Amino acid sequence: TSLNDVGGEPRRFGISVAAFHAATRARAVRWPHNMLATSTHDSKRSEDMRARLNVLSEVPAAWKLMLKRWRRLNRGRKREIDGSDAPSRNDEYLIYQTLIGTWPLTPPDDEQLADYRARIDAYMSKALREGKEHSSWIQVNADYEGAVSEFVQALLAPGEKNLFLADFVPLVQTIIHHGLLNALAQLLIKITSPGVPDIYQGCELWQFNLVDPDNRRPVDYAQRGRYLAEVQAMVDAPPEQWPQRLLPLTSDIADGRIKLYTLWQGLALRSRWPEVFEQGDYLPLKVSGEHAAHVCAYARRHGDRSLITLVPRLPARLLGDRQVLPLGTEVWGDTALELPHGLATVPWRNALTGSAHAAADQLAVGELLAVFPVALLASELAP
Hints:
- The chain has helices at residues 17-30, 47-53, 60-73, 89-102, 110-131, 142-155, 163-192, 221-234, 242-245, 247-251, 257-272, 274-279, 315-319, 329-332, 341-344, 365-368; strands at residues 35-37, 79-81, 84-86, 196-198, 281-284, 286-288, 295-302, 305-312, 336-338, 348-350, 356-357, 362-364, 375-379.
- With 383 residues, it is α+β, with helices and mostly antiparallel strands.
- The protein has a domain at 1-17 and 41-193: Orthogonal Bundle (Arc Repressor Mutant, subunit A), CATH 1.10.10.
- Strands 5-7-8-13-10-11 form a six-stranded antiparallel sheet. Strands 6-9-12 form a three-stranded antiparallel sheet.
C-alpha cells in the first residue's frame, strides 16, 4: 500500500538503481529546482510509514505466512453482512498493512493503545468510504462500517488474551527497524538530490501518519527544539571526537534524533555550498564487492567542490532478522565505492561523522559506514 499515494503509481513496483540515477540525472538537467516532497498535508501515508511498509517487498515469504496466520487467528472476529464477510479480505489486508506501518516505536500503555485504536478506527472509516466498495460518503453502509470497527477494536484490545497482538508485536519489530534505515536513506537522498527538499511539519522526527486529519495533528515543536540543541551540542567539538559523541544517536535510533541530526547537517551543507546543490553535476557512482546491490551512491560536483552521498538499500535482505545497524566491515566485507579520476584525487571528510578519508580511487563502504548508517562526504580542500 506504500505505492498507493499522491504522486505514486501502484503499477510501478520499484525501480533499479540505474533507473533511479537516470531519472535523477534528467531532473538535474531539466528541473534542478523542482520541489522534493516525501510527505505533505495530503499524503495518504507519511514518508516514514511508506519506508517501513516497503520492507515487506523484501520479505514476501515471511509476509505471506504472517497474513495466513493472522487471518486464521482473527476469523472469528468477523461478521457476516449481506452474505459476505466484514471486513472483506481486501479490507482486512489493508488493516494489517496499516497496523504494520503505524505501530508505535515504543510499546504503548493502555491509554496510548486506546488513542491508537481510535486513530485506526477513524482511518478505516474514511478509507472505506473513499474506497466506495462497501460504503461511501453518499451511501454510508453503517452495518459494514460497524463490523469493521468492531474488528479493529478486537485486534487492538489490551490484555494477554489477545492472541493477535501477542503474535503481531514481536514480528513487526524487525520490520520497524529496517523501515527506519529505509527512512534515513530516503531523507539523505532527498536532501542531496537535484531539487529543493520540502520538510512537512513534524517530519523532523519519525512520523507514522495516515491521511488527514491524522497527518495534521499538533506537532511538539518544543521537543524538536530540545532535540536539535542536543544534537548540535554533540558535535560542538573537534571532528575527531564526533564518532564517540554521536553514539547516543546510533544506540537508540527510535527516538528520532538521528533523523533530525541528519536533516540538520544536510541542510547546513546545502547552506554552505548552495551552488553545488543548485547547479552541480549529478554523477552516479559505481559500487563493487559482495554487497554492491545494497548500496546507492552518487556525487554532486561544481567547480572545486564535490560531495558524495552513500546510503544502504534493501536492509532486510542485508541484515536478515538482526536488528542492528549496517556498520563496519563485518557487515560490508569487501564492498567498495569506486571513484572516477576527477574524484579519486580528492581527500574527503564525512559531514555526518567528522571522519577523514584520504584521496583514493576506491573507498571501503565498511569504513565510510563505520559509525553511522549513511554517509555524506564533502571534498576537504574546498572551503
